[in-house]
Amino acid sequence: MRMMVLALGSAWLAGCAAAPIAVAPDLVAHTQQIELTGIGFGETGHFRLGASSGSFTRSYARMRQVEPFSTPRLTRSFGHVAFAVTGPDFGAPTSADCRHVEGEVGGSLRVTDVPFRYRCRFTRDGKPMDAELLLAAAPLRIGLLTGETRAGEIRANGRVIRIEPIHRSPALAVPSGDPLGYRFGTVGAVDVNASPRVIFAPTAGPDREAVLLGSIALSLLWSG
Hints:
The chain has helices spanning 25-29, 206-220, and strands spanning 3-9, 31-37, 44-49, 52-66, 74-86, 94-106, 110-124, 127-142, 145-156, 159-166, 181-184, 188-191, 197-202. The chain is mostly beta strands. The protein is globular, with a radius of gyration of 18 Å. A twelve-stranded antiparallel beta barrel has the order 2-3-4-5-6-7-8-9-10-11-12-13. The two termini are 27 Å apart. It is 9% helix and 56% strand. The chain has one domain. Residues 1-24 form the signal peptide. Keywords: Signal.
């Protein structure tokens, strides 16, 4: 007999609650710090960043295959994020549709067979933008230990900005297991562990919108 068990999640990152990300002084000096308020832990809500505001919906689910007399066991995690934002930093109403998936196989010893992948596509005034965010599983090395983190890129306004995880905080003696935030190349960063979230955005130029959109998308991500 094969049975599928579906578990719904409504909360994401726990632990390291008061640990701000480590940001290079030069980046702090050349960016504007913007609080992203209103995210909370809900499935729907409204947020504000600077003079702009928006709304969001998100969901997360884990589906587990249970076979009493057989192994391996399959686990699939997947989720959806959608948001819309308006304000002076975006020119016209801008929306995003994001989805992520991850899978594991095994019992007490589990192996990832579907690596984590998060993808966002953007529209402006209802028309597709030439913009996309990709975040995927990536190797992590801390001293002699190896693990997994997430990294990717955002493409917008004719530019590609690399997204790198931030695991260090001045409040922690050792790096965190999960990313506390993300760095957008050399132009910006976002602290997804803070409450409210904190965005380090370029003060002007085409990279500002990319960092803001990427920061919202990463701040809203729920995953196991």
